[in-house]
Structure formats: structure tokens, C-alpha cells
Write a structure and sequence with these properties.
Pfam families: malic (PF00390), Malic_M (PF03949), PTA_PTB (PF01515). By secondary structure, the protein is of the alpha/beta class. It is built from 32 helices and 21 strands.
Length: 754
């Protein structure tokens, strides 16, 4: 099938459309229903009647945006009417939910009368935290937005005007930085004089481009003062009328620094680009066909041509999704009365700054592993970069507070953590660990220090202040790769071949392994050539606080040197691998997933104790369940007796101060109604959050099913039971995984110091 057929099938699948309403509170009992509706609902109604701001406390208003259109100017489709525009408006709501966790109610108004639209929308103010105006034709859209902003005390935002302006404004900030030009000196030509073009031109003026340096061209030619005086252009175009001779687009482009296309495709050719000033900027943003193709613009001349389009199949896509979800997120969270120019400028500057940062591996993978590094082909972040939420929304919120339109004074230092929690429980939990790590960063040895991903992770550790990374490996290789990556930080590098401690480390390894068949010569060779051994001895001797390895090795081979050199803790006979699985409303810790193939009862008990200790590092009070296919003796054989005995061993240990039970089936362990009903005698009064599997096979299968089918986000594997903080990564882990495990290792080291 073609794209159209696929899209029709996508939209008609049951249930039709793209959005639905879901409840956010329990509704499974009579008590729940009496709280949700009659008679309990009267209490919040009375509270809101007494204090209207309580609507933000007791209803969904504070996270609900009204998405309104009349379908008179749908991108690429024109005036298709209100009903036909509904799939587009639903889609816009999907983007708000997907990227910023904002709920949306769309309503399409079957009228072209601005008075009727203003009246209808303004009457909905009690329902919404903000209004998003979409796909209404110019010039009526200007009037409608202005009147709604004057009449309503909540944010009103017309994305067709401001979205392209803000995102292309961010691209402009970086483009002039790359070609070493000043905003105040730029000459800019616009093709198109509709809502997007006028708003973009106005925004460029807000960024610092002189209004008198902007030339606007509509279908009749350059917008001149003569045309304005003859009433040949509307009042919005007239703001950019210039006292210049009449002319066409080619005349307007000649000699300018920046061309902005918001018109129709194929208006510009290579000769026009060649007529522009040195190192020109070409933003050809008409869709689906740009005013000039990306490659055609780049190849038109020999100097630097910075190009952007509205298309996703070329670099530098100017995509409004980089702006409006995060604009609303920040505005809603401070209960802003409006979205003002300061907030828009703050959004653009935050986007521009983010493009200069190292790009997460997950983002690069989403775009086919293409290189994403600040420069002519990477001016603005990609739409799927989750960091946009954390950078733009706080910038918008801060601007709202500082410009006086916020009704809530957020703690901006913790606001990022609130935003991370919206994107997943794993982010919320990891922020607890990373914040702890920042209080006392430790030295973390990175065995694969020459690896580009490891180096980038080290830079993140320094940037976030969670650790002092030590890169192990050949110094020349590390420094060369840092230069290739364009990273501006100065890490500690330890090259084993030149390390003063080489002899001492060789002696230490030899003493530890000489009764295991290792000679002194072999020991020195290992610490010189194998950074896993070098790093293990480094940690064991106290020259580093923690070790991370395994990124380029199979797990067993990466684990072997730390086990041989560091070993298990005094109170531990076994190490174990643990994953934290984060679901929407809960987290669970599962073990063992990576180390022990067939542990006995004593091993299982020890794994349960160490996993519970790990849960507490995440501020989670553990409730442990030992899993089986049997419930509390319903099957009695060697296999079921093993987890049952493990649970008994922990309950008999006076040092264990958390609830433990087993053996039990997995659903018994995690379902409150089963524990409270069928097995009300169970030691667990609430569902378990520490799940101990009977063997490695079950643990590995179980966590992967929970991750893939259950939609859990996984953090790990985290190694517990070691004498010093050591963690073995999975092959192919990304920068974020390495940084997270470094944070866990640092907190582990902090606790051992304490």
C-alpha cells in the first residue's frame, strides 16, 4: 500500500481516530464511584466555587489545552472546512501528549466569522489551562489571536505564526554563529507574507535583526512603502514595507545574508543563491516542496551555504514540534496568563544552546545513526530528542516568571526533575541517584577509556557533576578521539603503559592470584595490556572508588577480572545482577538476571538481601518476594522448596528489617487483590517491589518480557555483592546507560565511606 492507504488504515483502526479519554483515578469499586461522582464530587465543586483557582487543584484544567480550528488554512490542503480538519487537529493534540504529557481536547468550529470564533473560544476559559489556535487563514488569524489574548486570562498561542518563527529563530542564532555574522548587520529577504512569514519576521526583529533590514515579497512583488500607502497590502504586511524600488524575489534576494522561504516550492534557483552575500543562510521552508532543494542550495556556490527546510529527509528540519509542546508545558506549569515575546525568545535561545551539546545515542539511532554534531548540517535539535523538554520548558517558565505573567513561582532547580518524572518512572528514580551522587562525586575508573561512547559518557559525568571519571587506555588514542568528538573537557587519563603504579599493581595482582596459577610476568602483562585488570587493581588498591567496564566485552569475560581481583564483600559469597524496571506507577527490582545460573537457597537469600539494599539507595522501601510456579506450598518438590527456604532464611535473620515471603507465583507477588484476598496470611501487605527469580534463566527471561511486553524502562544491570563498587555494562550500552551506572557506583561508594 502507498502512504495514503496506510494513513487511512492507521486512522480507521478500532477505535477510530487518534485520541481517547482515560480515567486517572480508580473507578473499580462503589466507593471509588461515590468519590468520582455523586455525592463526593460536591466537595471539590464547593471548594472551586469559593476559590476559582482551586480548579487547578481539583480538576484537569491545569494540564488541559483546547485545540481549536475552523480548517480554513490547513497546511498543504487549504480551506477544507472544520470537519475535514479534525484529523489534523487531533494529530496536533497527539504531539502535545507525546512530547510534553499535555492532555488535549480538540474542537472544530464551523464558521469563518472571527467574531463567532472569538466568542465561542473565550467562553471555554473555565475548561482549559491554555488555548492552541491552529489552521485559521490570514489575516483573520492575527485578529483572532490578538482578541483572544486580550479577552482570556490563560495562554493563547497560534502555532502557525509562532512555531516556525521560534524554531527557525533558533536555527538563525546558530547559523550566524557558524558563519561569524552579527544579527544587527543581517539583511534578510522573505518569500511569502502570510501568517508564518510575518510572525517569523517579527520574531527575527525580537532577536536583534533591524526591522529596516527585512525585505518581504508577496505574490505581487516586494512589499514597498508605495504599495502600503496605496493600501495594496494589509496592516500586518505594512509593518515591513520598505522605501525601495519595486521588484521581484530575485531583486529582493540579491546581496542579502539570509533568505527565508514561507511561500511555495521551486521559487528560488541556484543563480539567486549565488547572488546572495558571503556564506549565505537559506531557510527554504515551504512544504512539501521547498522554495529550493536542500542540496541544490548547498551546491550553488563554493563558500558555506547553511540550509534548512521543513522536510524530515534533509538536515536542519524546521519542525514546529520542537516548540509548541514545550512552550505550553512551561506556560501551564507556572499558570501563565499569556505567552509573551520573552517566553518565545527564551524558547529559541534554549533550542539553539541545546544544538551545541553532545547528542544522545538514542537520538542518533532514531535518525539512522547519522552524525549529529553542531555545524552547518546540525543547527537545531531533532524532534525526537527528549532533552528538548528539559531545556525549553524551564526556559519558558523562567521567562514567564521574570516577565511577570506567571501566577505560580516554580522552584526551577527542581522543575527539571518534575519534567523527567513525566517521561517515565525510571527518569524519576535515576534523578534520585544522580542527585545523591552530586553531593560527593567519586573517582570512577572507565576501563574502556578509548571507546568514543565511554569518552562521551565521561564528559556527561563531568557536566552533570556526578563523578570524577578516569579514562583508562592509550593516551594518544583517547586524546585523538576526544578531538574528533569535539568535546571540550579535560578528563583524567591513565595510560597503563606509562603509569607509575604499573609495578605496584602487578605485584598486587600477583599476590592475589599466585596460588591460582598466575606468574609475576603474566601479572605485569595483564595490568599493562588489559584495562579490566588494571582498573580492578586500581579500585582494590583505593586509587579509584569504582569501576565500570563491559561495553565492548561479553558479560562473563568483563566480570571475571573484578571477581578475581576485587571479589565479593565480607558479608557476601555471591555477586548478582539486578535490573530496576520502571512502569508508569511503580518500580520493581528483579534479580538475578546476569550472573548466577542455578543458585541454591542460601544464594537466593543473599541475592534478596543485596537487592533490597540496592532498592533503598533509590529511596524505595523493599518488599521481597521469592518467585516460583507454586504458591506457599501448593506444589512441594526440590524446585519449590528452594525459594521457600530462601524466604525462611531472610525472615529468620534479625538484621532483615523488610517484609519477605515466598515461594509465590509472579501475579500473587504483584497483585494487591490476590495478596489481600486469597492469601491474606502473606507477609506482604502491599505488592512486592523486589522480585527474586529462582534461577538465571527465569530472571533473564522475566525481566526482558516485562521490559518489552510490559512497557517497562530498564536500568541496569547493577552488580550487587561486590567488595567495591564495580558494574559491568551490557555490550552496546549508550551514554545514558553508562552515566546512570556511574551514578549508582558513586552512591555505593558514598555509602561505603559513610
Amino acid at each position: 500500500m502507498g502512504l495514503d492507504e496506510d494513513a487511512l488504515d492507521y486512522h480507521r483502526r478500532e477505535p477510530p481516530g487518534k485520541v481517547a479519554i482515560e480515567t486517572t483515578k480508580p473507578t473499580s469499586t462503589q466507593r471509588d464511584l461515590s468519590l468520582a461522582y455523586s455525592p463526593g464530587v460536591a466537595a471539590p465543586c464547593r471548594a472551586i466555587a469559593d476559590d476559582p483557582t482551586d480548579a487547578y487543584t481539583y480538576t484537569s484544567k491545569g494540564n488541559l489545552v483546547g485545540m481549536v480550528s475552523n480548517g480554513s488554512a490547513v497546511l498543504g490542503l487549504g480551506d477544507i472546512g472544520a470537519q475535514a480538519s479534525k484529523p489534523v487537529i487531533e494529530g496536533k493534540g497527539v504531539l502535545l501528549k507525546r512530547f510534553a504529557d499535555i492532555d488535549v481536547f480538540d474542537f472544530e468550529l464551523d464558521t469563518d466569522d472571527p467574531d463567532a470564533i472569538v466568542e465561542a473560544v473565550s467562553l471555554t476559559e473555565p475548561s482549559f489551562g491554555g488555548i492552541h489556535v491552529e489552521d485559521i487563514k490570514a489575516p483573520e488569524c492575527f485578529e483572532i489571536e490578538e482578541r483572544l489574548r486580550d479577552r482570556m486570562d490563560i495562554p493563547v498561542y497560534h502555532d502557525d505564526q509562532h512555531g516556525t518563527a521560534i524554531v527557525s529563530g533558533a536555527a538563525l542564532l546558530n547559523a550566524v554563529d557558524i558563519v561569524d555574522k552579527d544579527l544587527a548587520d543581517l539583511e534578510v529577504a522573505f518569500a511569502g507574507a502570510g501568517a508564518s512569514a510575518i510572525a517569523t519576521a517579527e520574531f527575527y526583529v525580537s532577536l536583534g535583526v533591524p526591522r529596516e533590514n527585512v525585505t518581504m515579497v508577496d505574490s505581487s512583488g516586494i512589499v514597498t512603502t508605495d504599495r502600503a500607502e496605496a493600501d495594496d497590502v494589509n496592516a500586518y504586511k505594512a509593518r515591513f514595507a520598505r522605501d525601495v524600488p519595486a521588484g521581484d524575489l530575485a531583486d529582493a534576494i540579491d546581496g542579502v545574508d539570509v533568505f527565508v522561504g514561507l511561500a511555495v516550492g521551486n521559487l528560488v534557483d541556484g543563480e539567486m543563491v549565488r547572488s546572495m552575500a558571503r556564506d549565505p543562510v537559506v531557510f527554504a521552508m515551504a512544504n512539501p516542496d521547498p522554495e529550493i532543494g536542500y542540496h541544490e542550495a548547498r551546491e550553488a556556490r563554493d563558500d558555506t551555504v547553511i540550509a534548512a527546510t521543513g522536510r524530515s529527509d534533509f538536515p536542519n528540519q524546521v519542525n514546529n514540534v520542537l516548540c509548541f509542546p514545550f512552550m505550553f508545558r512551561g506556560a501551564l506549569d507556572v499558570r501563565a496568563t499569556e505567552i509573551n515575546e520573552d517566553m518565545k525568545v527564551a524558547a529559541a535561545r534554549a533550542l539553539a544552546a541545546l544544538a551545541r551539546e553532545d547528542v544522545p545515542d538514542a537520538v542518533a539511532k532514531a535518525y539512522g545513526d547519522e552524525p549529529l554534531r553542531y555545524g552547518p548540517e546540525y543547527l537545531i535539535p531533532k524532534a525526537l530528542d527528549p532533552r528538548v523538554l528539559f531545556e525549553v520548558a524551564p526556559a519558558v517558565a523562567r521567562a514567564a516568571i521574570e516577565s511577570g505573567v506567571a501566577r505560580v513561582d516554580l522552584d526551577l532547580d527542581t522543575y527539571r526533575e518534575d519534567l523527567e518524572a513525566r517521561l517515565g518512572k525510571d527518569r524519576e528514580m535515576m534523578r534520585i541517584i544522580l542527585n545523591k551522587a552530586k553531593t560527593d562525586p567519586k573517582r570512577v575508573a572507565l576501563a574502556e577509556g578509548t571507546n568514543a561512547t565511554t569518552i562521551r559518557a565521561a564528559a556527561r559525568m563531568v557536566e552533570e557533576g556526578i563523578a570524577h571519571p578516569v579514562l583508562l587506555g592509550d593516551r594518544t588514542t583517547i586524546e585523538s578521539r576526544m578531538a574528533d568528538l569535539g568535546l571540550d573537557f579535560d578528563p583524567e587519563i591513565v595510560d597503563p603503559a606509562e603509569a607509575e603504579a604499573l609495578g605496584r599493581y602487578a605485584d598486587q595482582l600477583y599476590d592475589a592470584r599466585k596460588r591460582k596459577g598466575l606468574t609475576r610476568v603474566e601479572a605485569e602483562d595483564l595490568v599493562r595490556t588489559d584495562t579490566d585488570y588494571f582498573g580492578s587493581v586500581m579500585v582494590e588498591s583505593g586509587d579509584a572508588d569504582a569501576l565500570l567496564t563491559g561495553l565492548t566485552h561479553h558479560y562473563p569475560s568483563a566480570l571475571r577480572p573484578p571477581l578475581q581481583v576485587v571479589g565479593t564483600a565480607e558479608d557476601a559469597d555471591y555477586a548478582a545482577g539486578v535490573y530496576m524496571l520502571a512502569f508508569r506507577n511503580r518500580v520493581v527490582f528483579v534479580a538475578d538476571t546476569t550472573v548466577n545460573q542455578d543458585p541454591g537457597s542460601a544464594e537466593l537469600a543473599e541475592i534478596g538481601r543485596h537487592t533490597a539494599d540496592l532498592a533503598r539507595r533509590f529511596n524505595v522501601e523493599p518488599r521481597a518476594a521469592f518467585l516460583s510456579y507454586s504458591n506457599f506450598g501448593s506444589v512441594d518438590n526440590q524446585g519449590t522448596r528452594k525459594p521457600r527456604r530462601a524466604a525462611d532464611l531472610l525472615r529468620e535473620d534479625p538484621a532483615v528489617d523488610f517484609p519477605v515471603d515466598g515461594e509465590m507465583q509472579a501475579d500473587t507477588a504483584v497483585m494487591e487483590d490476590i495478596l489481600e484476598g486469597t492469601y491474606d496470611f502473606a507477609e506482604l501487605e502491599e505488592p512486592a517491589n523486589v522480585l527474586i527469580f529462582p534461577n538465571l534463566e527465569a530472571g533473564n527471561i522475566g525481566y526482558k518480557l516485562l521490559q518489552r511486553l510490559g512497557g517497562a524502562d530498564a536500568v541496569g544491570p547493577m552488580l550487587v555483592g561486590m567488595d567495591k563498587p564495580v558494574h559491568v555494562l551490557q555490550r552496546g550500552d549508550e551514554v545514558n546507560d553508562i552515566v546512570n551506572l556511574a551514578g549508582v557506583a558513586v552512591v555505593d561508594a558514598q555509602e561505603r565511606d559513610g
